[in-house]
Amino acid sequence: MPRAVYSPTDHDADALYIARAHVPDAFLCVEYAGNRIGLFSALEYDRMKATGAFTHVLSLEQYIEKTKEVYELESPSPGDMLALLAVELEVERVLVGARFPALLLRQAEERGLAIDVAEGPLFPERQVKSDAEAAQIRMGNRAACAGFAELERMLAAATVRGDGALLLDGEPLTSERARSAIGVACLRMGGFAFGTIVAGGDQACDPHCEGYGQLRAGELIIADIFPRMADSGYHGDMTRTYIKGCPSREQRRLVQTVAEGQNMAIERIRAGADGRAIHLAVTDYFNSKGYPTGKLDGRNAGFFHGLGHGLGLEVHEAPRMNRSGANLMAGNVVTVEPGLYYAGLGGCRIEDNVRVSEEGSELLSEHPYDWIVE
């Protein structure tokens, strides 16, 4: 069945997957029988022909005139043009993704085109990464590593005030300040880091809290960096946990247990493995070490998020390794990011990426696990 996309590439990874180039304005594209057919205005027409990603690049201006004539319209919509394109392809139905604009869907249906909405990924083949795609993810992770190196430099250079607050060059070292410096370090490597997490203390017990305010010695600090490469749109995604100063015995044991859980998970990853089973095995291991998952004083505690997710043109994509899970396929790139979170003690998460193979997995991220900063 033909698959249709209408979006700018920055808003829909499927559009970027088809175009293989950045297109800032929404464009209509149909993929069918090995062909990629895109409608582009004069602004983009020559550039899209030059990229080689499309088998057919059609002039939007000419197609508007053609649609006007066929449907006797003064101002045809993209939905009208999709319906006409389907007629020319001699198809009666097309498949669209969940992000396809509802108004365009309705317009095309009014022209008699049947449209199905994919219940899963519109392009499930995106889950299997080529060598070139894996190389782009490696580059994203190198950008993340530059961010970690900058954070480590800042923590090492920081002094400790009497109340434990960290100062750098006489000014408070805050999550916001660290996040900005990480962003600059990633940018130097060609990656845009948005939503970076630098969360200390109990803030880190909320895994998606970006962190705010003063960073302190003696508290676990989670740094989660997932830059998007400017040229290709592929992401890296890595997490490290740090502490400034000497950790307590409980903090050491927490970090060690998370590291052991990650190693155990990576050893089990291979083509055909059940992502749900791997997730539950790590959960059981944490339970056996005295780290249960559940509610503690009214908030979630333990290992209450998924073990990992697919990574590529989106930072979160299929397949998942969680309680729902999926069987892994050769070529999948997944994060492996166990974590433990207990208010009062703090949070720890360690994250790397692997590419699944028949024999096991290939590590696509590499950065030291030196979490104690003097």
What's the arrangement of secondary structure elements?
Layout: E1 3-7, H1 13-19, E2 27-32, E3 35-40, H2 42-51, E4 56-59, H3 60-71, H4 78-89, E5 93-96, H5 102-110, E6 114-117, H6 131-157, E7 159-160, E8 166-168, E9 171-172, H7 175-188, E10 191-192, E11 197-200, E12 220-225, E13 228-229, E14 238-244, H8 249-268, H9 275-288, E15 294-296, E16 299-301, E17 308-310, E18 317-321, E19 333-336, E20 339-342, E21 346-349, E22 352-356, E23 361-363, E24 372-373
Parallel strand pairs: 1-5, 3-4, 5-6, 14-24
Antiparallel strand pairs: 1-2, 2-3, 7-8, 8-9, 10-13, 11-12, 12-14, 15-16, 17-18, 19-22, 20-21, 22-23
Helix pairs in contact: 4-5, 6-7, 8-9
Structure description:
The chain is α+β, with helices and mostly antiparallel strands and 374 residues long. The chain is 33% helix and 25% strand. It folds into 2 domains: 3-122, 3-Layer(aba) Sandwich (Creatine Amidinohydrolase, Chain A, domain 1); 127-373, Creatine Amidinohydrolase. It has helices at 13-19, 42-51, 60-71, 78-89, 102-110, 131-157, 175-188, 249-268, 275-288; strands at 3-7, 27-32, 35-40, 56-59, 93-96, 114-117, 159-160, 166-168, 171-172, 191-192, 197-200, 220-225, 228-229, 238-244, 294-296, 299-301, 308-310, 317-321, 333-336, 339-342, 346-349, 352-356, 361-363, 372-373. The strands form 8 sheets. A 6-stranded mixed β-sheet has the order 4-3-2-1-5-6, sandwiched between helices. The mean pLDDT is 97. Helix 4 (78-89) crosses helix 5 (102-110), helix 6 packs across helix 7 (175-188) and helix 8 (249-268) runs antiparallel to helix 9 (275-288). Strand 8 (166-168) and strand 9 (171-172) form a beta hairpin. The termini are far apart. The protein is built from 9 helices and 24 strands.
